[in-house]
Structures are given as structure tokens and as C-alpha cells.
Amino acid sequence: MNTMVYVALGANLNEPVQQIQDAVLALKSLALDSIITVSPLYRSVPMGDVEQPDYVNGVAGFNTDLSPIALLDALQDIENTQGRVREVRWGPRTLDLDILLYGQQVIEEPRLTIPHYGMKQRSFVLIPLADINPHLILPCNTELKSLITREMRAELIQI
Ligand code: ROI
After folding, report:
1. Which atom belonging to ligand 1 lies closest to the Cα atom of 118?
2. Does 57 contact ligand 1 (Cβ within 6 A)?
3. How do the domains of the chain map onto residue ranges?
4. CATH dotted code for 3-158
5. What is the 8-class DSSP label of residue 11?
6. 44 lines ligand 1 (CB under 6 A)
7. Is 47's C-beta closer than 6 angstroms to any atom of ligand 1?
């Protein structure tokens, strides 16, 4: 079964733009016919209390036949290949790949919460997601665009 999935991309260490570009190439291997749509990339101020460099953020969308857990494993493999070490919670990272949406499924498992728990509050997720799918309706039936405020738009600088 093919499912449309959206993955958030984030990086703020070791050439973040390059990290994201490398991740996009790696994600192609998970996508049906290697076709993926990637949003513009944005520079964003770190969310959270840890002092750290600005982030580069974007979103990728693609069809895949991987199950949610197989997709999670594949994303963690890509993060690890690109040198991610799990250190400080909410601290800096070379690469963060989070599943935002897996079709219209709602999943609550120990390793996986979909839709991503913080996505509705995060400008650096909502705006690039709307760039690639402006008419998206979330599984809770909320229109994605309705969550994006003027303040959120002011937070991001397109690269
Ligand atoms: N802040 C921004 N701006 N972008 C991120 O991708 C990001 N990722 C995180 C935390 C530390 C919550 N802050 C972030 O995991």
C-alpha cells in the first residue's frame, strides 16, 4: 500500500544546508519511483531554552510503501549515517528527520506519535508543509493553512 508521507527536516550543526541536501538524496531511496517534493528551506530561531545556532528547516513529501515503523527506522538510519549523536534534549543536531503525517493515520505508539505532537505550533513545520501542499487537511480535520499566523510567517527567513 502506498501512503503519502510528510517528513520535517531540521539541522543546525556542520553545514546545515548541506546536511539537509544530503538527507533529501537519502530520502529519495525511500520514495516510490524516487520522487519527492521538497519545500523551500528556511532559517529559523531555535525553539526551546537551549542556546544553539539557528536552524535550517524544510519539509519533504513523498509516497512510500514502508510501514510507519519501517519509515521511522529508515529515517533514524539516515540521521545516524549523517553523524547524529543523541545528546542534549532539545539541543543542537546535525540532522533531525521527523514524520509529520502518514496519510491520514493517527498513530500513538511508544516510539511514534503521528501527527507529530508539536507540529501545529511550529512555524518551521507548518509553513514549508503548506508550501508543498497548500490545501492539506490534517487528520483532525483542521485546515493546515488556518494554523498559520502572521507572527509565524515573520519568524522564518527563506534561504
Ligand atoms: N527549533 C527550530 N527552529 N527548528 C528545529 O528544527 C528545532 N528542532 C528541535 C528543537 C530543539 C525543539 N528546536 C528547534 O528539536
Report:
1. 12
2. yes
3. 3-158
4. 3.30.70.560
5. E
6. yes
7. yes
Q: For residue 133, give the C-alpha cell.
A: 501542499
> Is residue 8 a contact partner of residue 117, using CB atoms and an 8 Å limit?
no
Per-residue pLDDT tens over the stretch 89-126: 888 989 999 999 999 999 999 999 999 999 999 999 99
For ligand 1, what atom is nearest to the CA of residue 8?
A: 6
Q: Which atom belonging to ligand 1 lies closest to the Cα atom of 52?
A: 11
63: helix, strand or coil: strand
For residues 48 and 62, what is the distance between their CA atoms, to the nearest angstrom? 29
Enter the pTM of the model: 0.96
For residue 68, give the C-alpha cell. Answer: 510507519
Tell me which amino acid residue 100 is. Answer: L
Catalytic residues: 84, 93, 96, 98
Strand duo 96-102 + 3-11: pairing: antiparallel
